[in-house]
Structure formats: C-alpha cells, structure tokens
C-alpha cells in the first residue's frame, strides 16, 4: 500500500522551466532509488533521471545539463527541475520508486503521470 503522488507539470514555452515533484507515502521501510521516466505520444517510455539512496544520479543524454533530480529524504520526496525546455521534451512524465516495504521485500511503484507540454 504505497502511493506516489505527482505535482507540477503544465504548459511552457521553449527555453522555459518547470519543476516536478513526487511524494511517496504508505508502507515504506526504505527507499532504494527514485526516478523519472517520460513517454511521448507514439513512443516508448524512456528513462529521464534516477537517484539512488547514496545520492548517485543518472541522466539520459538528451537532458544532461538541463535537468536535475534531487530529493528530500525526510519527506520521501523527489523533484525534477527542468530548465531550457525544448519542444521534444513534451511528454507525460512518470515518477517511480524502488523501495522496501519491510526488511526483506521490495517493489517498484509508479506515480499517476504529469503532462509537460513545451511550445515552440
């Protein structure tokens, strides 16, 4: 019984910025990693950024230097700061978390998705 609730997103012109947030709640024993994926119309879901428990990050080449993932551990929250947005960033963005629900069992969970639209 874990929930990931996303906020943020919206419509922005090319070159603008948006900030997505994702809060995990419920039966959380320990978060292993959190991340963001996105899916554009007619395309497969792709990795955007991940953040592991030790603070290590991983970014898709297409967003390096423009996007930044961060966390607030005490609030089980992850953010995605998106700067210098391009029309090709338009997609539904999904928060995901891999976490332990007890000391030995882990699963992956997904947020509801946030629409990001970048106009030219």
Task: Please describe what this structure looks like.
By secondary structure, this protein is mainly beta. It is 0% helix and 60% strand. Strands 2, 4, 5, 6, 9, 10 and 11 form a seven-stranded mixed sheet that branches. A four-stranded antiparallel sheet has the order 1-3-8-7, with no helix packed on it.
Record field, number of beta strands = 11
Kindly state the percentage of residues in helix: under 10%
* Main sheet overview: 7 strands, mixed
Overall pLDDT score? 96
Number of helices: 0
| Rg from Cα | 14 Å
Distance between the termini: 41 Å
> How would you describe the shape?
elongated
Query: Unreliable segments (pLDDT under 50, ≥5 consecutive)?
Result: none
The assigned structural class equals mainly beta
**Percentage of β-strand residues:** over 45%
Assembly type of the shown chains? single chain
The helix/strand order is: EEEEEEEEEEE
Structure, briefly:
The protein is an all-beta fold and about 120 residues long. It has strands at about 1-5, 10-15, 20-25, 30-40, 45-50, 55-60, 65-70, 75-80, 90-100, 105-110, 115-120.
List the helices and strands and how they pair.
Layout: E1 2-7, E2 10-13, E3 18-26, E4 30-39, E5 46-52, E6 57-59, E7 67-72, E8 77-82, E9 91-100, E10 106-110, E11 114-119
């Amino acid at each position: 019984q874990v929930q990931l609730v996303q906020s943020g997103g919206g419509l922005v012109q090319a070159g603008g910025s948006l900030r997505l947030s994702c809060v995990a709640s419920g039966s959380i024993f320990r978060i292993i990693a959190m991340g963001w994926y996105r899916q554009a119309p007619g395309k497969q879901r792709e990795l955007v950024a991940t953040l592991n428990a030790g603070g290590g990050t991983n970014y898709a080449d297409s967003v390096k230097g423009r996007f930044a993932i961060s966390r607030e551990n005490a609030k089980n929250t992850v953010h995605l700061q998106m700067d210098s947005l391009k029309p090709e960033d338009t997609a539904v963005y999904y928060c995901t978390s891999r976490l332990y629900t007890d000391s030995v069992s882990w699963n992956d969970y997904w947020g509801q998705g946030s629409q990001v639209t970048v106009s030219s």
